[in-house]
Amino acid sequence: MGKERIDAAFAKVLEKGDKAFVPYIMAGDGGLENLREQVQFLEDSGATVVELGIPFSDPVADGPVIQEAGLRALANGTTLDGVLQNLSEWKESRSIPIVLMTYFNLIFSYGIEHFAARCVEVGVDGLIIPDMPMEEEDMVTPTFSEHGLALIRLVSPTSPKSRIEKIAGSTEGFLYAVTVKGTTGARSKYEEGLSDYLQDLKQFSSAPVLAGFGVSSPEQVRELSSYCDGVIVGSKIVELLASGKRQEISEIIQAAKVSETII
Ligand SMILES: O=P(O)(O)OC[C@@H](O)[C@@H](O)c1c[nH]c2ccccc12
């Protein structure tokens, strides 16, 4: 359950010599009734874990593409409870681990204990809570560990070294290495020093290190994942899924499969 399922999914990919690929999608964008099929498509295309966003009215770290997806999902009535209910309905047929990306407010108003128990019940394996600083995480960690849920921590290029060490040492499932200063969204250029930053993180983290924010093309997937264990792609996947360009999504995901290209 939970953390172990995530660990096993990464181990399988990395032992093969491939890089991990975590696509982000917004739950309820395109209708919650299509979530199952969307996740199945991502799994069939070669995703390692799916990061599922819960729409929220005040998404402080989201860039424009994800904000709009959130507004579409809210407009068609998507709620945290509805997403959890939906996940429970096809729990048995799902093998890819699910990580929920949600702001803390939603968890807090749901009730931390109730939320964690419900996550386990519906087959959620881990959580990303981007607005929960390290100093506050004691509010959730005892409950999450008791339920076997992984808390995936984020570091950014602006985090001081001592902070990076602590966060990287305590993360579960994987370490989310934010590649840029700013919000989510595709970018054409990366900041200087990114390869050193990603390679350094490997020293501090026993969990896989994945780079996210601004990754959108197969070339970027190949480049960034060569410095770490894999990538997270959000905005580009959200945009392509909404416009039905699934072949392009598969190509982006396939770029992480390096073992097949090295002969
Ligand atoms: O969209 P991008 O630039 O590809 O970045 C991934 C990101 O969207 C996804 O992981 C995410 C969506 N909302 C977030 C909020 C905080 C951290 C991460 C996220």
UniProtKB/TrEMBL annotation:
Gene Ontology MF terms in the entry: tryptophan synthase activity
Highest taxon above the source species: Bacteria
Keywords from the named record: Amino-acid biosynthesis, Aromatic amino acid biosynthesis, Lyase, Tryptophan biosynthesis
Keyword Lyase: yes
EC number: 4.2.1.20
Pathway info: Amino-acid biosynthesis; L-tryptophan biosynthesis; L-tryptophan from chorismate: step 5/5
PROSITE patterns: TRP_SYNTHASE_ALPHA (PS00167)
Active site: E51, D62
Catalyzed reactions: (1S,2R)-1-C-(indol-3-yl)glycerol 3-phosphate + L-serine = D-glyceraldehyde 3-phosphate + L-tryptophan + H2O
Family annotation (InterPro entries): Aldolase_TIM (IPR013785), RibuloseP-bd_barrel (IPR011060), Trp_synthase_alpha_AS (IPR018204), Trp_synthase_suA (IPR002028)
Subunit structure: Tetramer of two alpha and two beta chains.
PANTHER family tied to this protein: TRYPTOPHAN SYNTHASE ALPHA CHAIN, CHLOROPLASTIC, TRYPTOPHAN SYNTHASE, ALPHA CHAIN
NCBIfam families found in the cross-reference section: trpA (TIGR00262)
Function: The alpha subunit is responsible for the aldol cleavage of indoleglycerol phosphate to indole and glyceraldehyde 3-phosphate.
Family: Belongs to the TrpA family.
HAMAP family: Trp_synth_alpha
Protein name per UniProt: Tryptophan synthase alpha chain
